[in-house]
Request: fold
Amino acid sequence: MGSCPVVEVDDDEYAKLIRRMNPPRVVIDNDACDNATVIRVDSIKKHGILLEVIQVLTDLNLIITKAYISSDGSWFMDVFNVTDRNGNKVRDKEIICCIQNSLGSDACSFPGIGNSVGIVPSKEHTFIEMTGTDRPGLLSEICAVLANRNCSVAKAELWTHNTRVAAVVHVTEESTGGAVEDPERLSAIKELLCNVLRGDNDSRMGRMTVSKDRTHTERRLHQMMFGDRDYESTVVGAGDDKPRPQVAVMDCAEKDYSVVILRSRDRPKLLFDTVCTLTDMQYVVFHGTVDTRDDEAYQEYFIRHVDGYPINSEAERQRVIKCLEAAIERRTTEVSVTRSQPLPAAHDLCLAVSSIIVGSNPGVGDGAEDRRQTWSAFRRDEGFPREWLDD
Reply:
C-alpha cells in the first residue's frame, strides 16, 4: 500500500488561511460615546497588527483620544475613541467606508505597512532616504545638489533630533518627469549627498539609499532615526524649559510582563509614534490603555519581547526609555516640503526652513562658517545659478 504524500504548509500561508477563515470584525459606533466615535476591532493576533490599525486611523487624520488594547491567546481586541481634526465625531461616509474597507472583513487581512490608506507603489518617483548630522542650511544644500544633477524635488519630509537628521525625498528626472533610472548618475548623487551629510568631527558618516518602492514615510523616518541611534544623546539648550516626556519601565512579575508608562503633552500621531517604536524594537503589546485630557497624554502598555520574555536587564530598560523619549520628541522638528514653484523659490524656502530647524536644535551648527564657505565655493565651481551663490 502506497503512503500518502506529506504536504508541507508554509507558516505564512497557514497564517493567511487562518486569517481568511477568521476575518477582522470592525464596528463603528457614533452613539456609544457623547464626544467621540467608537471603533472596535477584533481580529486574529499577529505581530504588528496594533500598529497597522493605528496607522490606518492616523493616515486618515483621525485623532485617537482613548484606546483600550487587549489580546487574549490568539485573539486581538481593540477599542478606539476617535474624532476628526476639529474634535467632532466621524460622520463622513467616505471616511467610514474607508475604515471598513481597510480594516474589515472585505480586506481579509490588514494592509501591510507599505500599503496603508493613501500609500501606493509609485513608478513616477525615485525615493532617496538620508541620515546624517544636522546643521544650518542642510536642506537647501540637499536640494541644490539634486537640482544641479537635473533632479526635481517633488516632496521632502525631514525630521531632526539630537543633532541628527533623517529625510525622505521624492525626486524625478527633470527632463522626463519620471523616476531617475541611470545607476551611474544615482551613484554620483549618492557620493555628493553623503559628503553633504557628513558632519564636522562626527564619527558617523552620512548615509543614503535609493528606492523605487514607496514605503510608509513616517515609519521609515522612525526606523532611520532609530538605526542612526539618535536616542543615544540628549541636547538641551540653555534656558530650554520645555517639559520632556516621562517614561517609566517596571516589572509585573506575577503576570510575566514589563509595564511601560508614558506621560507627555498630547499631539496628533503620538500613539502611532510610540507603538511604532515598540513594534520596531520587536516588542509585543498584550494589554494597554491610552487616555488624553487637557493636552496631556497617558499611555500604559503591558509588553513582552517577541521571544516571549519581558525586559530582563537594566541596560535593556534604559534603552527602551531612551528610544520612546526620542520617538515622542522627533516630530517637534518635523518639516514637510512639497515643490509647487520653480526651483530657486523652493531653494529659498529650504534656506528658511533650515534656519527654523536649527533654531529648535541647540548645539547644531558647530563649524558652520567653514562649511558655508566650502559650500559656496563648491556651488560656484559647479556652475549653480547666480541667485543661489549668496545665502
Q: What stands out?
A: Residues 1-10, 108-121, 340-368, 387-391 have pLDDT under 50 and may be disordered. The two ends are 86 Å apart (CA to CA).
